[in-house]
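Incident review: delayed structure delivery

Summary: a single-chain prediction request sat in the queue longer than the usual turnaround. Root cause was a stuck worker, restarted by the on-call engineer. No data loss occurred. The affected request and its eventual output are reproduced below so the record is complete for anyone auditing the incident later.

Affected input:
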Amino acid sequence: MAKTTSVSKSTKHGRSESMWGYIMVAPTIIGLLVLNMYPFIDTLKLSFTKTKPFGLYKFNGITNYITMFTSAEFWRANWNTIYFCILTVPLGVFLALVVAVMLNKKIKGQTAFRAIFFLPMVVAPAAVTMVWRWMFNTEYGIINTILGNSVNWVTNPNLVIITCSIIAIWSSIGYDAVLLLSGLQNISKSYYEAASLDGATKIQQFFHITLPMVSPTLFVVMIMRLMSSLKVYDLIYMMVEESNPALTSAQSLMYLFYRESFVAGNKGYGSAIVIWTVLLIGLVTAVQFWGQKKWVNYEV
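Output delivered after worker restart:
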């Protein structure tokens, strides 16, 4: 009888803990459903409609998707987005790792250097972009002044994506470096001491100790940076004006979505672009998770 009472109390205690657990996570779950799932479902429904006056919609099946997949502008926006990712992600993550390794050393003013590198993440993106836009100005920009040339950084279709990529890399290095620095600081010093006793050089230690041990953090940074690059909008919006002849060579999928939804007023077609972008991000993320088994080291 006493044993049964003890089990009953244990069960009630377990249920009480579970209830409090659900209560604690409820705000996050509600926020996820209200701010993420409902808008996504609503966007999915809108992608099968045609926008009418006074906020009304008319179901038109897969017409928006047919129009999208047969549009040269849409495929150009796809390539611009992928090209932007190719330019920014590998180089940006590499530079962030180099900065993190340097900041992990015992140097004077280490805290100040960390704050300086992280500063671009604190400043408003619009302000950052406007400063860089002035620096890349063809006539009186400081970059052309230093180079002694009149390079059309923003209006040249062959350079506009590269220009935007430079700004994106500069803006993200500090944040990524701080994340990688946290991973570096979790590596035990005993690994490096043992490697030094075995005669390993600093470069050998980096490739055989640092890189494998920081790979889980590096994997997270790469996912975040890829997702951010695939969703790029504000940087291009601030750098490239509607009248810019290089707009076609610069607009990303999210910029095309903005133009179709809020400029042209075709929210159904814009929603189709968003759904395609979500699928693209999901595909890229799935490939990353599949590939991480071959290079990410989770062993302590």
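Verification: The chain has a mean pLDDT of 85.
Action items: add queue-age alerting; document worker restart procedure.
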